[in-house]
Here is the input.
Amino acid sequence: AQTVTQSQPEMSVQEAETVTLSCTYDTSESDYYLFWYKQPPSRQMILVIRQEAYKQQNATENRFSVNFQKAAKSFSLKISDSQLGDAAMYFCAYRSPRGTYKYIFGTGTRLKVLA
Amino acid sequence: NAGVTQTPKFQVLKTGQSMTLQCAQDMNHNSMYWYRQDPGMGLRLIYYSASEGTTDKGEVPNGYNVSRLNKREFSLRLESAAPSQTSVYFCASSEGGRSTDTQYFGPGTRLTVL
Here is the structure.
């Protein structure tokens, strides 16, 4: 069975600085999808970025980018030029390309942004 | 386009009471999901519906039932609430049936069982 691990319960970053959130996963599949979701205090889960495992190029969305290391089964999220609005819980998620496409979530990392 | 909506936003129940959480999506998605979120445990799948007319158990289905009323609506029922069911509940939907599927979430329901 697949598992997702986020080993950093909490991180802090100074406004305008860069921070990296870690995520590792375990799977025997070769093709799959990885996601980062943001959950602000409003509780709404918001998709930040998505990575297809068959793509070697790391996904990027504005100030958010990933470092996808398939062999190491690592999927970290880098936030550049951090803003106060980036403060939230961040969840890493794994999805198999087969079956019913269920997600497996990590336990989350709480990001604090310091002014 | 409201996306995924959930009602109610908050609910307090006494042990043994029953209630139904409602979820609706207006994105014409085929698949719908119910998750619960507990502190330090991320989101765990309770039940899902891959398509209209089908439902299947997820990781933590005990104490819950679901109904896929139509393509838009997917409800979660607690027949006899227990304090262990105190949690935040999220509904999600996705197009389904495609390998590039992405789930979109509702705003959540905070449920407290006394």
About this structure: Chain B touches chain A at residues 31, 33, 40-45, 48, 50, 56, 58, 88, 90, 92, 94, 96, 99-105, 107-108, 110 (CB under 8 Å). DSSP finds no helices and eleven strands in chain B.
